[in-house]
Sequence to fold (90 residues):
Amino acid sequence: MFVAVACDFASDDHRKSGQDLLGQYGFKKVLKDAFESTALSETALGRLKRDLDRITDSYDSIRLYQYPVEGTLAITVLKEKKWRRLIVKA
Fold:
């Protein structure tokens, strides 16, 4: 599955931890706070979300763009320590 991650970290410590974590999962940095992977499984994505939840606080925001999910694009957002998912339908 293709996954792109856009991060808005509240502190440099969180940014460093997030970049290190995404690198461990095989993500490549494409912009200052944007990363991409073309080989992430659903299982690994679940672990990544739990790990991101551990290193962030309520001031950090993260958006995951996943394709394909149920044959379409899914956007998962971590904001104020809560995950929400939006499935984009044509």
